Amino acid sequence: MSRSPFPPDYPGEYPKIVTSLPGPKASEVIGRDARIVSQNLTKDVPLVVSRARGMVVEDVDGNRFLDFAAGISTVSTGHCHPEVVKAVQEQAEKLIHICYTDFFYPIYIDLCEELAKIAPIKGNRRVFLTNSGSEAVETAVKLARVRTGRQKIVGFFGAFHGRTYGAMTLTASKPVQRKGYGPFVPEVLHTHYAYCYRCPVNRQPESCKVECLDLLTDSYFHHSVDPSEVAAVIVEPVQGEGGFIPPHRDFLPRLQDLCRKNGILLIADEVQCGMGRTGRMFALEHYGIDPDMIILAKGIASGMPLSAVIAREDVMKWNDGGHGSTFGGNPVSCASALATLRLLQGGLIENAGKVGSYLIGRLGGLQKKHAAMGDVRGLGLMVGIEVVDGRAGRRPAPQSRHKVIEKAFGLGLLTLPCGESTIRLSPPLIAREADVDKAVAILDAAFAAAG
Ligand SMILES: *Cc1c(COP(=O)(O)O)cnc(C)c1O
Q1: Mutate to test the pocket of ligand 1, among 156, 271, 418 (most ligand atoms within 8 A of CB)
Q2: pLDDT tens track, the chain, 451 positions
Q3: What is the Å distance from ligand 1's center to 302 Cα?
């Protein structure tokens, strides 16, 4: 593809704040929400969106924000990319829904062929399409159990896999995501992730031999769990919700060896870190592993609901009719995903790597100025700033983190929190160095103002 994957420049200045926040129209909408919408969806900032294009989100009062959140890493090609919009419109005129559980349609197969082609899994692959990250996680776990005849599933502390019962049981990111919702799905256990800034076993990264995995081998497998009863290990190649944490470089290879030795399936949850965000199509490519299954969602269709499970052919064998999905692989979502893949492969993945390195470099400079910027880490455009109480070493500082996000919002930059005290920066993959410069200037001011 020789056409540029970048959308046309935004026609106007951004960011640009023209009212107090929330503005009068936004306040009115928030008032209506308070009267009718379930009030459990807590938001860090009072943003009421009317439209968005490229890197820019416009609110109902005409304020323009630079978007470094991308709908939780979802709007991978930027908001309403003209090629994505065109693909969606054309498909919506032809066929919106028919249900692949009952009938065939070609675009479902087109997308499966593309995903199978790019997936870094050795051997032939098969694909199953679903609607959300959670549904894909449920699908992968059901497949792992039925395929292996084993029941136990291993996940990691800090992991986020979704909100439905199986996915929530595997999630161990924040207690509030589980509190009160038990009992959970049986036979799930959690072990340590290689979170080097806060090493769970107090090693130095340089001399570490990934001893965090010893909890699994030396404790569980030695004392309470026979590995022959473990169906699968599910792991985020870079933890997302848990704090934007790329693991120690030997962690995933060692985990894979452990799985192979014990006949355990390795499931890579690439829902947040996949689809080009880290500068490679799949984050696991940075670590050279060959998993049995890959789960995709978030960035796969530029914001249209779609997710996928890709598995080695001999793994994706299960009971006929036992699993299905009414909306899974919706034709309009498939069209959006195919357009997204073309743009990612047409230069946006490369851009994520380049602009991501630039962002990490610029933040490294800023870190020297602000003691509260405890750790700057990431791959490509998946970058976290862990906010700490600078005077007390590495103590997490969630209050300061909130202040920085709020101040940045006031200056026109959208960011999101993750982990206990990390700011997540995950702009669309069309971000340019000039966007990074604007974002870094705002973060500089926000850290200064937050003290
Ligand atoms: C967001 C997320 C999920 C869940 O996706 P939903 O679409 O919200 O169900 C699963 N895994 C990871 C890694 C995620 O970031």
Answers
A1: 271
A2: 458 999 999 999 999 999 999 999 999 999 999 999 999 998 999 999 999 999 999 999 999 999 999 999 999 999 999 999 999 999 999 999 999 999 999 999 999 999 999 999 999 999 999 999 999 999 999 999 999 999 999 999 999 999 999 999 999 999 999 999 999 999 999 999 999 999 999 998 888 999 999 989 988 999 999 999 999 999 999 999 999 999 999 999 999 999 999 999 999 999 999 999 999 999 999 999 999 999 999 999 999 999 999 999 999 999 888 999 999 999 999 999 999 999 999 999 999 999 999 999 999 999 999 999 999 999 999 999 999 998 778 999 999 999 999 999 999 999 999 999 999 999 999 999 999 999 999 999 999 999 7
A3: 15
What domains can be seen in the chain, in order of their start residue? 24-80+347-450 (3.90.1150.10), 84-343 (3.40.640.10)
Q: How far lies 20's CA from each of 24, 67, 127, 445, in Å?
A: 8, 19, 48, 18
Distance CA(39)–CA(37), nearest Å, equals 6
Contact residues of ligand 1, CB 6 A cut-off: 132-134, 137, 160-162, 236, 240-241, 269, 271-272, 297-298
CA distances in angstroms from 195 to 65, 223, 419, listed in the order given: 32, 25, 11
Distance (Å, whole) CA 52 – CA 66 = 10
Residue 414, SS3 per DSSP: strand
CA–CA dist 366, 369 (Å, integer): 5
Q: What is the pTM of this model?
A: 0.98
Distance, CA 188 to ligand 1 centroid (Å)?
18
Nearest CA to ligand 1 atom 11: 161
Number of residues written out for the chain: 451
User: In the structure encoding, which two tokens stand for residue 307, read together?
Assistant: 């997710």
Ligand 1 centroid vs 309 CA: distance in angstroms?
A: 13
